[in-house]
Design a protein that fits this description.
Largest sheet of chain A: 2 strands, antiparallel
Radius of gyration of chain B: 21 Å
Radius of gyration of chain A: 22 Å
Number of domains of chain B: 2
Number of helices of chain B: 6
Strand content of chain B: under 5%
Oligomer: heterodimer
Helix content of chain B: over 70%
Order of helices and strands of chain B: HHHHHH
Shape of chain B: extended
CATH class of the largest domain in chain B: Mainly Alpha
Number of domains of chain A: 2
């Protein structure tokens, strides 16, 4: 098939799935935080609040977009646009799965593979700060300006340990392309330990994860939008869709950073168990989830449970059946298995992000800076030196 | 297609370059400079220098310009007023002279340099990360290390100058 048409189709699918996932990520976050705080979270719109993201989108679109009179109009309007564009662009180089063949078309589950893909993601994330910084400055508001300044200082500082932590697995795999990085991590030590970079690079992984929290402005590093000091930080003056753009950019950055962590340290779409066993895991998980939902649907604790839970059970059992069907349809197998393991790992990391938000309080600003320069940076440097030494000694 | 992309981004680079000088507000100038760097990175990419393009974005557009913007915001520098009064006659004559001057310079450069073959996009293959690293640590090792030491000295100097007297 024509390269151009094929790319267009893939871009369309990725954009649609990614944007929908962003909306539902917010639902997951509110649910998880709610349960951590012994609340139920969104519950009114649709069964278990499942239509809440849709309601939020409608609300944000139909709200009045207020343009404050004292702002610098051009930059005020440019900032959310920049933030969301730069947040969405990185997804184009991330691979979701291996090479697949559908009918006569053979393609990779990836939009494009740059041979400097990892550098590309770092470059985009390093210019991503302009959206926040400009938004804070153009609002012409003390709180917003402070938020913008904090975020630029914080992102410059945490980019160093982030880049150094990324460099260590690059040394091991000897490549800058995400595809080859995942291929390097295939196979098993002793037949059952996956050859993922997280095992030799556990220190690098921890540094990467902490720096990623700061890069995405998440708690405990969300100083740019600290509510108790800065009202809402850099987006104080924004409303309606321009506020939604900042919101979306934050979640998009979160997904990107967890996807990069998965590809660099957790073996991408490679399953954690050897081939024949790993094929049964999705069937077992979805089948079990379906059975639990069915049991609670038949013994309803709340009024609506006897309608909603059997529906959920049907969905889960259907997915389990789909994974079961891969044994008879070899076309489906690489697509579904790769997507299951890749999305599973991303979801686990995203859950960690949300979990930390529900657990840790915010740092003070001087603590944040001292932590970056005195703890994280030397740790990342040490990790890189040790990795380099090991690679140099073993390559002879 | 490649020619189209080249002219598009070359045009953006020139436009941003002019805007860098013409803007009255420091932030607008800084952003124009980022535009110049971004479009130059894409031109490098077209010429086959993938690593250089990525480094351009990370180091210049990402690190150095963020620092510039940060400082401008911190000092809260406002827009520069135009105090200079220029007569319309001088303005139009100046434009004409500028074009003539640029034409003269480009003519002299054309005449002086030896005729070479035109650049073909995609012909250069030595721009990968491995190639750049190999060159940097074999042929150009001494200049590379000397530059590092120079930058280190500059950093130390900046710290000494900025430190408060105890």
């Amino acid at each position: 098939m024509n390269f151009f048409i094929l790319s267009l189709i893939k871009a369309g699918i990725i954009a649609f799935v990614f944007l929908t996932a962003l909306a539902y990520l917010q639902w997951i976050e509110r649910k998880v935080i709610g349960h951590i705080q012994l609340r139920v979270g969104p519950y009114r719109v649709g069964p278990h609040g499942l239509l809440q993201p849709l309601a939020d989108v409608v609300k944000l679109i139909t709200k009045e977009g207020v343009l404050p009179s004292h702002v610098n109009k051009f930059f005020y309007l440019l900032a959310p646009f920049l933030a969301v564009t730069l947040a969405l662009i990185s997804i184009s180089v991330l691979p979701f799965g291996p090479q697949i063949t559908i009918g006569s078309v053979t393609t990779w589950m990836q939009l494009t593979d740059l041979n400097v893909g990892i550098l590309f993601v770092i470059a985009i994330s390093s210019v991503g700060v302009y959206g926040v910084a400009l938004g804070g400055w153009a609002s012409n508001n003390k709180y917003a300006l402070l938020g913008g300044l904090r975020s630029s200082a914080q992102m410059i500082s945490y980019e160093l340990p982030l880049a150094l932590a990324v460099a260590a697995p690059l040394l091991l795999a000897n490549t800058l392309s995400f595809r080859e990085m995942v291929n390097y991590q295939s196979g098993y030590w002793l037949g059952f330990i996956p050859r993922w970079n997280i095992f030799p690079e556990i220190l690098g992984f921890i540094v990467f994860l902490i720096a990623a929290f700061a890069e995405t402005n998440r708690i405990p590093f969300d100083l740019p939008e600290a509510e108790n000091e800065l009202v809402a930080g850099f987006h104080t003056e924004y409303s309606s869709m321009s506020f939604a753009a900042f919101f979306m950019a934050e979640y998009a950055n979160m997904v990107t950073v967890t996807a990069v962590a998965t590809l660099l340290f957790l073996g991408g779409w490679q399953p954690p168990f050897p081939e024949p066993y790993s094929d049964f895991v999705p069937i077992a998980i979805f089948g079990l989830a379906g059975l639990v939902a069915l049991y609670h649907g038949l013994n309803p604790a709340r009024r609506m449970d006897k309608f909603t839970l059997p529906g959920a059970a049907l969905l889960f059992l259907g997915i389990a059946a789909l994974f079961g069907a891969t044994f008879f349809l070899p076309v489906l197998k690489p697509i579904l298995m790769a997507l299951f393991w890749f999305c599973g790992k991303i979801l686990v990391l995203l859950f960690v992000f949300i979990w930390v938000r529900g657990t840790l309080p915010r740092f003070r600003y001087d603590q944040l800076m001292r932590f970056a320069w005195i703890v994280l940076f030397p740790l990342a440097m040490f990790n890189l030196l040790v990795t380099g030494l090991a690679v140099a000694l073993s390559s002879k | 297609m490649t020619a189209l992309i080249f002219f598009l981004f070359a045009g953006i680079a020139v436009f941003c370059g002019i805007s860098l000088v013409a803007q009255t507000h420091p932030i607008a100038s800084a952003l124009s400079l980022i535009g110049v760097m971004g479009s130059l990175a894409i031109l490098y990419l077209q010429l086959g220098g993938e690593f250089i393009a990525a480094a351009q974005m990370i180091v210049y557009a990402g690190a150095i310009m963020v620092l510039f913007v940060f400082v401008i915001m911190l000092l809260n520098a406002g827009a520069e007023g135009t105090s200079l009064r220029v007569s319309a006659f001088a303005k139009y004559l100046g434009m004409f002279l500028l074009v003539a001057f640029l034409g003269l310079i480009s003519f002299i450069i054309q005449a002086m340099l030896p005729r070479t073959e035109g650049v073909v996009f995609g012909a250069f293959k030595g721009g990968t990360t491995a190639d750049v690293g190999m060159k940097l640590f074999t042929v150009y090792l001494l200049p590379f290390e000397v530059t590092s030491v120079l930058i280190l000295i500059a950093i130390l100097g900046a710290i000494v100058l900025a430190r408060k007297e105890i």
